[in-house]
Design brief:
Blueprint: H1 2-16, H2 19-29, H3 34-60, H4 73-95, H5 118-130, H6 135-147, H7 153-167, H8 169-181, H9 185-224
Helix pairs in contact: 1-6, 1-7, 2-3, 2-8, 2-9, 3-5, 3-6, 3-7, 3-8, 4-6, 4-9, 6-7, 8-9
C-alpha cells in the first residue's frame, strides 16, 4: 500500500495545483449565492475525481497487476501515451503563453458564473475535475497505478481516497478561507484570483510538461521491467 501511495502523491499534487478551477471557485464564492454554490462546486470536484478514479480501478481490476504483483504491460502503455500527450501539450501551451502576463484573459464563460444555477455549478465542478485536460489524465494514471499495485480492493479504495483528498486541497483552500474568515476573505481571495489569472497559462504549461515527463518515465519503467 505504501508504494501505491508514493506513486500517486505526485499526481495528486499536480491536480491540486489547478489555477483555473481555483479562480472559478473564487468567482462562485463572490456571487450572492456563494455560500450555497461554493460548497456545491467543491462537492462536485471531489465526486468527479472519485468517480474517474473509481472507474479506472474497476477497469484495471485484477488485470492491473501481473502474477508477480508488478504493473501489467497495458498500465505502462497507458502511462506512456498519457505522459507523451501531456508533455506535448505543455510545450504547446508554453509557446502560446502571453509574453506579457497582464494580457492574460479568463475564459468567456466565467463572466456568466454569477448567473449559474446550482445544477450548472455542479456540472462545472464535475467538468473542471473529471474532464479537465490536465486533471483527467493524472487521475486516470493514478487509478491505473493503484489498480496495478497488487493490493486488496479496500486498500485500493483507501489510496484513492487519499489521492482525492490531496488533489482537492487547492480547491478546498479558498472555500475554507471563505467560510472561516467571512468578509475578511474577500481581499485574500481577490489576491489569489489575480495571481492565478496572471500566471495560469505558464503554471499549467510547466505542470503539463513536467508531469507528462514523469508519466512517460514511469510508463517506460513498467514496460522495460
Amino acid at each position: 500500500m505504501g508504494k501505491a501511495l508514493g506513486d500517486v502523491l505526485g499526481l495528486a499534487a499536480g491536480v491540486a495545483v489547478s489555477p483555473l478551477p481555483i479562480v472559478a471557485l473564487i468567482l462562485v464564492l463572490a456571487t450572492p449565492r456563494g455560500r450555497l454554490n461554493g460548497p456545491l462546486f467543491a462537492l462536485a470536484w471531489v465526486v468527479g475525481l472519485a468517480l474517474l478514479g473509481g472507474i479506472m480501478l474497476a477497469i484495471g481490476g485484477a488485470g492491473g497487476a501481473s502474477s508477480h504483483k508488478e504493473p501489467a504491460p497495458w498500465v505502462g502503455v497507458l502511462k506512456v501515451v498519457l505522459g507523451a500527450l501531456l508533455a506535448l501539450f505543455g510545450a504547446r501551451q508554453w509557446r502560446r503563453r502571453p509574453r506579457d502576463p497582464a494580457q492574460a484573459q479568463l475564459p468567456k464563460w466565467m463572466a456568466a458564473i454569477d448567473r449559474f444555477t446550482p445544477l450548472k455549478i455542479l456540472g462545472l465542478g464535475l467538468a473542471l475535475s473529471a474532464a479537465n485536460l490536465k486533471n483527467a489524465p493524472l487521475t486516470i494514471a493514478a487509478g491505473a497505478s493503484i489498480s496495478s499495485a497488487g493490493i486488496p480492493v479496500p486498500q485500493q479504495i483507501g489510496v484513492l481516497a487519499v489521492f482525492v483528498i490531496i488533489a482537492s486541497l487547492g480547491v478546498l483552500a479558498p472555500l475554507g478561507v471563505y467560510l472561516c474568515m467571512g468578509e475578511r476573505a474577500k481581499s485574500v481571495l481577490s489576491t489569489w484570483r489575480d495571481w492565478a489569472v496572471l500566471h495560469n497559462v505558464a503554471v499549467m504549461a510547466v505542470l503539463f510538461f513536467v508531469l507528462g515527463l514523469k508519466l512517460l518515465g514511469d510508463g517506460i519503467g513498467v514496460l522495460v521491467a
